[in-house]
């Protein structure tokens, strides 16, 4: 535009549309550690006790799924884990009753209390899995169930009038039972874990490990780890979710040595050297479930309950559920999902 010419209407309109430069947001200063300079006791450390009291009052949810062929001792192992009859045995069916034609999902809820802490435990069983002549896609009903629980949680979360505490039915952990063949994983094992490891925390366990010698067990564990790695299957604890070096060191040991846990379950007690122990009686002696020289049950229990239970819940919420939530909102153009539509 040449000098001296009056500004056109369009130019004026355009100049009005140019936004004013916004002031830059203030960058927060890095916190300076002053703990060594405190002049007296404040009481910050009591937050842990406050949180403990609150948890004691409200309790918490933990939902564990067991998957594997019938006859691998899934119910017995879960009962042994929680030292109570929390899982009904499939063998309680009548002998005349047929194996389910399709995979069924059965969830049984219990409240377990120990030391004043309440845990609402839900055990999700999957009778019929891997028991058919044709097991093609038999993992689909299980994946559907897991996603349905995410959907339920999401719909509660996007409600205008939200519940103070959303009931959590999401699957926090899936124990996948591998048959103790001593050879290699079946195509069904690989297929299941390949699909489901993307949506749930899978912990592989070798069932009825007392059917193998120590050498066979060690070789089989190594072979299973190798097959999972070759097939790109990530089991829990996943490498990419290690939060710091301490986590990485601890989890690397579990991933490289313990996984998959070779376990024996039993809810029967026997007397050994004057002590009552859970075990399995054989013609050559008693296999003590909680004796590390006999099997790795104690390692699995400590891992699932005593060291990683909270992390299993957090990975479920922050990773698996978050992935599902982002996809659902994205599919819906960023809007919350409409009830009943999925």
UniProtKB/TrEMBL annotation:
Residues 1-29 are annotated as: Disordered. It is found in: Cytoplasm, Cytoskeleton. Keywords: Cytoplasm, Cytoskeleton, GTP-binding, Nucleotide-binding. Residues 1-10 have a biased composition (Basic and acidic residues). Residues 58-331 form the Septin-type G domain. CDD domains: CDC_Septin. InterPro entries: G_SEPTIN_dom, P-loop_NTPase, Septin, Septin3. Coiled coil: none annotated. It comes from the Eukaryota. Belongs to the TRAFAC class TrmE-Era-EngA-EngB-Septin-like GTPase superfamily. Septin GTPase family. This is Neuronal-specific septin-3 isoform X8. The gene is SEPTIN3.
């Amino acid at each position: 535009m040449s000098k001296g010419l009056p500004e056109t209407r369009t130019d004026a309109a355009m100049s009005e549309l140019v936004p004013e430069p916004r002031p830059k947001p203030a960058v927060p200063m890095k916190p300076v550690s002053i703990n060594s300079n405190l002049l007296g006791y404040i009481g910050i450390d009591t937050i842990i006790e406050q949180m403990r009291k609150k948890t004691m009052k409200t309790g918490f949810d933990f939902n564990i799924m067991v998957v594997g062929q019938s006859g691998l001792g899934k119910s017995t192992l879960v009962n042994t884990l929680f030292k109570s009859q929390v899982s009904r045995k499939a063998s309680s069916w009548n002998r005349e009753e047929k194996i389910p034609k399709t995979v069924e999902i059965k969830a049984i809820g219990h409240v377990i209390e120990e030391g004043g802490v309440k845990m609402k435990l839900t055990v999700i069983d999957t009778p019929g899995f891997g028991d058919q002549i044709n097991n093609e896609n038999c993992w689909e009903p299980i994946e559907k169930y897991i996603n349905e629980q995410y959907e339920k949680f999401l719909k509660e979360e996007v409600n205008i009038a939200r519940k103070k505490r959303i009931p959590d039915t999401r699957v926090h952990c899936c124990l996948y039972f591998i048959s103790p063949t001593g050879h290699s994983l079946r195509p069904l094992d690989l297929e299941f874990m390949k699909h489901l490891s993307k949506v749930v925390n899978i912990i592989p366990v070798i069932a009825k490990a007392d059917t193998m010698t120590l050498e066979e067990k060690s070789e089989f564990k190594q072979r299973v780890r190798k097959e999972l790695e070759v097939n790109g299957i990530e089991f829990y604890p996943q490498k990419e979710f290690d939060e710091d070096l301490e986590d990485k060191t601890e989890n690397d040991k579990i991933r490289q040595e313990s996984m998959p846990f070779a376990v024996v379950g039993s809810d029967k007690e026997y007397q050994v050297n004057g002590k009552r122990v859970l075990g399995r009686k054989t013609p050559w002696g008693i296999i003590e479930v909680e004796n590390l020289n006999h099997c790795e049950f104690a390692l699995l229990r400590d891992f699932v309950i005593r060291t990683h239970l909270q992390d299993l819940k957090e990975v479920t919420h922050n990773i698996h559920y978050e992935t599902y939530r982002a996809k659902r909102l994205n599919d819906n153009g960023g809007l919350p999902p409409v009830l009943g539509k999925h």
